[in-house]
Design brief:
alpha/beta, Rossmann fold, about 20% strand, single chain, 8 helices
Length: about 325
């Protein structure tokens, strides 16, 4: 499905979104210089993701410009509010951005790329990145609860710990720690990443846009997304994401899965037909249902949606109106 045409004021359109085709979105960058080299782009590109200088210039430079503008105005609003309250603070709290989307859609690449682009701006050069993988329950606990096969579903996370982390960030705490996840061992580690007074915090994960859950007494609690200043949903057709997932699995079969320390080392010995069948099974039983039931329904909560075409290039952008 493509974007609706962008209508002019007075046309009677009451959509809460502005949707732009790629060419119209790319024009918003103007004559902004290319901030990254191809080598830097290669550093952030994920396995199987297609990303080049042109894609960065046409899609991600305008996005970084938009976010930088909103960071600037958020700072002005913060200072005005502090002045009104007659309690000026020496430093505003970090600007928090959530990035959501399916497994294999390229959200990690988008997040790393945004980190590099936003850090180029001296007004907010201290940019931290945290993935919600670190807030997954340990494998032993997932197994105890019978949730190991539902890893990545909302119930497989320590949602209270994630919420406490985001609240600590937004409260302006000097340093905040987040747990680290290992894709090699497929488990949470004892390591932590420390955030030291960042200007911007990027939080990437499958379910970061989930709404708050209702409590047993009927009251609604807080959600991680309640503390986001901006959010991005990386979108694509389900059939394309499924294909990307299988293709990535086949690449991992020849690389990371060959590592004897890998949790998935057993997949490294599969031939192509067996690996394709295994990847398809994992998608159809776990990742596909999670996308359909939990991740995709949160798309409408995002500030901005990047819709990808079958070749991973962004085809159109949808921005929620202020």
């Amino acid at each position: 499905m493509g974007p609706m045409s962008v209508t002019q004021p007075g046309s009677g359109d009451t959509s809460p979104y502005v949707e732009l085709e790629r060419s119209a979105w790319a024009d918003l960058a103007g004559d902004a210089p290319q901030p990254l080299s191809q080598a830097e782009i290669d550093e952030v590109r994920g396995l199987g993701d297609e990303l080049d200088l042109e894609e960065v210039r046409q899609v991600y430079v305008p996005l970084a410009q938009l976010i930088s503008m909103r960071i600037r105005y958020a700072g002005e609003l913060y200072r005005s509010t502090e002045a009104f309250l007659r309690r000026p603070q020496p430093k505003r709290t970090p600007y928090v951005i959530g990035i959501a989307g399916s497994v294999a859609v390229g959200k990690s690449t988008t997040t790393r790329l945004l980190r590099e682009l936003l850090a180029k701006n001296p007004a907010h050069s201290n940019v931290s990145l945290v993935t919600t993988d670190g807030f997954l329950l340990p494998n032993a606990e997932l197994e105890r609860r019978g949730l190991l096969e539902r890893k990545g579903f909302p119930e497989s996370y320590d949602r209270k710990a994630l919420l406490r982390f985001v609240m600590a960030v937004k409260s302006g705490r000097e340093t905040v720690e987040a747990p680290v996840y290992s894709h090699l061992s497929y488990d949470v580690t004892d390591e932590v990443v420390t955030l030291n007074r960042p200007d911007v915090v990027l939080i990437e994960g499958l379910n970061v846009l989930q709404p708050a859950r209702s409590r047993a007494d009927g009251r609604t609690g807080l959600a991680t997304s309640d503390f986001f200043d901006f959010s991005v949903y990386v979108d694509a057709a389900r059939k394309d994401i499924r294909r990307w997932y299988v293709e990535r699995f086949l690449r991992l079969r020849e690389t990371a899965f060959r590592n004897p320390d890998s949790y998935f080392v057993r997949y490294g010995a599969l031939d192509i037909e067996q690996a394709t069948a295994q990847a398809s099974l994992l998608w159809d039983s776990i990742n596909g249902p999670n996308l359909k039931e939990n991740i995709e329904p949160t798309r409408g909560r995002a500030t901005l949606v990047l819709r990808k075409d079958s070749d991973h290039s962004v085809r159109w952008v949808r921005l929620r109106k202020l």
